[in-house]
Amino acid sequence: MMEIQIAESREDLLQILEIQAANHKQDMSSTDLTEKGFVTIKHSISELQKLNDAADQIIVKEDEKVVGYALVMPKELRHIVPGLQPMFSKFDELIYNGTPFSSLNYYVMGQICIADSHKGKGLFSKLYQKHREVLSNSFDMCITEVATRNLRSMGAHLKTGFKVLETYTDAEDEWNILVWDWRK
């Protein structure tokens, strides 16, 4: 039986890292990148533990095995993952409906990923719905960025309710900044 829940143990976090490693863009074929989607950041257990200490991390488990996750990254923890600094700097430049994004009440979707064995089962949407259920009393919106070439992830985010706020290119890739405004 699958259950969407909050990560409760170090073992949960270690299993998140296993899924992350299996889906990291550096370790995937070009066909898999296109067909399966990918993640761009590898967290350390220390970084993941800091995120978990600060906010509930949402996972999906089947028979005590983590098969998917959707990481919550409060903007106050922006400095714990050095590879995400350019993203946060970009977010600081944004204006959303006439308001500087930096003054809005948001968190960052730190990363979402489903194990290959469970892709196509609707878990992506269920993880995000759990985010909204758990976090909408504390935050007005969720923001993230997705590589434009990550077509599987882009499609899933748009289907969930995210809107493209801006597209930009950096040294790594071309990115869509996506926002899911729960006030609407």
Layout: helices, strands, pairs:
Elements: E1 2-6, H1 10-22, H2 30-36, H3 45-54, E2 58-62, E3 65-74, H4 85-93, E4 95-96, E5 99-100, E6 106-114, H5 123-135, E7 141-147, H6 151-160, E8 163-169, E9 174-181
Parallel strand pairs: 6-7
Antiparallel strand pairs: 1-2, 2-3, 3-6, 4-5, 7-9, 8-9
Helix pairs in contact: 1-3, 5-6
Describe the structure in your own words.
It is built from 6 helices and 9 strands, in the order βαααββαβββαβαββ. With 184 residues, the protein is α+β, with helices and mostly antiparallel strands. The protein has a single domain (2-181), classed as Gcn5-related N-acetyltransferase (GNAT) (Aminopeptidase, 3-Layer(aba) Sandwich), CATH 3.40.630. A 7-stranded mixed beta sheet has the order 1-2-3-6-7-9-8. It has a two-stranded antiparallel sheet with strand order 4-5. Helix 1 (10-22) packs across helix 3 (45-54) and helix 5 packs across helix 6. It starts with a strand and ends with a strand.
